[in-house]
Amino acid sequence: MKTPLLQSKKWQKLQDDLKEVNFFKETEEFSYLAILKDTPCGKYLYTPYGPCAEDTKNFRKAVDDLVALAKEKQALFVRIEPTTPKNPAEILKGLKIKKSTDINPAHTWVIDLNCSDDELKAKLPSRLYRYYKKYQKTGITIETSKNPEDIKYLLDLQTKLAKTKKINTFSEDYLKTELSQDFATLYLVKYTEEGAKESKIIAAGLVFDDEDTRYNLQGAQDENYRKLHATGILTIQLILDAKAKGLSLFDCWGIAPEGAPKNHPWQGFTEFKKTFDGRAVEYAGAYDIILRSGKYRLYNLIRFINRKLRKIKA
């Protein structure tokens, strides 16, 4: 079974660098990376895209081990987010389990890179690929960076986008710490207008690579230069570079679920990602295993109020 990046030792190092209390356990039957989160109501354990096990029997063992750890740490609940099985509630009989709001995408779009160059080009949107082939003639250049200080360019674009799209952004320190990891690369799209002496960064993207997959986690573009199709050009570059690196999959990182209403906040992103020839992948989503019911209800009430306040503020 492939271990998701978010359940790996590399992701544990990121948590260590972020000063997050975490617990990594790996046995012949299961593995997990659990992060101890603190809230005004108490603590909880969170396993992003985990725990991991080959079968349902060992998955149950992993959850039982997590529950024991949570009780030892006096946590209110355990939040699991397994990539398999699809319906964890059916396996976790005897535990008080509740579907929670997803943290990481439960639905995503992946592109298979195990093909010839010509076959891969056929998976790219033809209109965007035409823009890509001539982008250097239009004053656009694409650069990569591993310098955490350069994260400011992505954050600046995201902050501007957040004001219009009403979305949340990570802090600069968090993004810097991500870029300092060996699995992270920042892409910068620069544009030099005709007659201008200096270029301007009009799009940026942060990708993570593990042994076989590139994850296209974060990106943003300057809406004033939308007609230059910087996001599409950059996405094609990310895909081609992933294949050149020998990776097998390109994970677009999040789409709206099948049958989602047209006003779903991810609908626009989903339509764009599906112009690339790929396939949908569905995970279980987030579930909470409740250990202390009263405080758990209080936690959810505060969480609900905070979300409402963020929407009002936005």
What features would you describe in this structure?
With 314 residues, this protein is α+β, with helices and mostly antiparallel strands. The protein has 2 domains: 5-105 and 284-313, Gcn5-related N-acetyltransferase (GNAT) (Aminopeptidase), CATH 3.40.630.30; 107-282, Gcn5-related N-acetyltransferase (GNAT) (Aminopeptidase, 3-Layer(aba) Sandwich), CATH 3.40.630.30. 35% of the residues lie in helices and 25% in strands. The strands form 2 sheets. Strands 1, 2, 3, 4, 5, 6 and 14 form a 7-stranded mixed sheet that branches. A hairpin with a 3-residue loop joins β1 (22-26) and β2 (30-39). The radius of gyration is 21 Å and the shape is globular. It starts with 8 loop residues before the first helix and ends with a helix. The model has no long low-confidence stretch (mean pLDDT 94).
Helix and strand element order: HEEEEHEHEEHHEHHEEEHEHEEH
- As an assembly, this protein is single chain
Number of domains: 2
Radius of gyration: 21 Å
Helix content: 25-40%
Give me the CATH architecture of the largest domain, please: 3-Layer(aba) Sandwich
**Class of the largest domain, according to the CATH hierarchy?**
Alpha Beta
Name the average pLDDT: 94
What's the layout of helices and strands?
Elements: H1 9-17, E1 22-26, E2 30-39, E3 42-47, E4 52-53, H2 56-72, E5 77-80, H3 88-91, E6 97-99, E7 107-112, H4 117-122, H5 126-133, E8 140-145, H6 151-165, H7 172-179, E9 184-191, E10 200-209, E11 213-221, H8 230-244, E12 249-251, H9 267-273, E13 279-282, E14 287-290, H10 293-313
Parallel strand pairs: 3-5, 11-12
Antiparallel strand pairs: 1-2, 2-3, 2-4, 5-14, 6-14, 7-12, 7-13, 8-9, 9-10, 10-11
Helix pairs in contact: 5-8
